[in-house]
Every structure is written in structure tokens, then in C-alpha cells.
Amino acid sequence: MLFKREHLVAVNGFDEEFVGWGHEDRDIVERLFKIGVRRADARGSMTVYHLYHPEHDRSASEKNLKLSLSERPIKAKQGLVKCG
Questions:
Q1: What's the pTM value of the predicted model, to 2 decimals?
Q2: CB–CB of 46/4 below 8 Å?
Q3: What is residue 45's DSSP assignment?
Q4: Exposure winner among 25, 44, 66, 78, fewest CB in 10 A?
């Protein structure tokens, strides 16, 4: 993902309440969408690399799913500025 710093600050960054990987990405996309940030296609304008990594533990998946399905505020509680 690539987004402007001002947008990241507006939603208080990634929410550290999530454990493990994946759900925090979906959460920030939804919160950015709520403030009017829309997806842009950058294909052909940059090179993207993904570093290989082994599978991560998915034991927190159910907790993360419940958290991501709950009503989420636009600003992260545990983001750039800790609010809770």
C-alpha cells in the first residue's frame, strides 16, 4: 500500500490492537475510505518488491476477525498517537 502521510496522520496510522498480520491492512484501507481516500492504480509507474517470508502464526485470526468486524472508529485507538 502507498498513501500520503497526511492521510495516515488523519486516521492515526495503523491500529496496533491487531495481532499478527493482515487485518491491520484491511482496517486502515476501510478507515482511509471513510475519510474520502480512494484507490489509485500505480501500475507501470513504479517497481514493487515483495520480500519472501515464511507463513506466520494464525492463532490470533479469530480475535482479529472479531475486531475488524466490530464498529471501528476512523482514528485508530492504538496508532501513531495512543488513545487508550
A1: 0.70
A2: no
A3: T
A4: 44
More confident residue, 69 or 41: 41
Q: What is the DSSP string of 13-64?
A: SS-TTS-SSSHHHHHHHHHHHHTT------TTTS-------PPPP-TTHHHH
DSSP state of 27: H
Angle at which helix 23-34 crosses helix 61-69, to 10 degrees, equals: 10
Distance CA 79, CA 24 (A): 11
Query: If you average pLDDT over every residue of the chain, what do you get?
Result: 83
Q: Are 17 and 67 in contact (CB under 8 A)?
A: yes
β-strand partners of 82: 78
Q: Do residues 15 and 56 lie in contact, with contact meaning Cβ atoms separated by under 8 Å?
A: no
Contact 76, 15 (CB under 8 A): yes
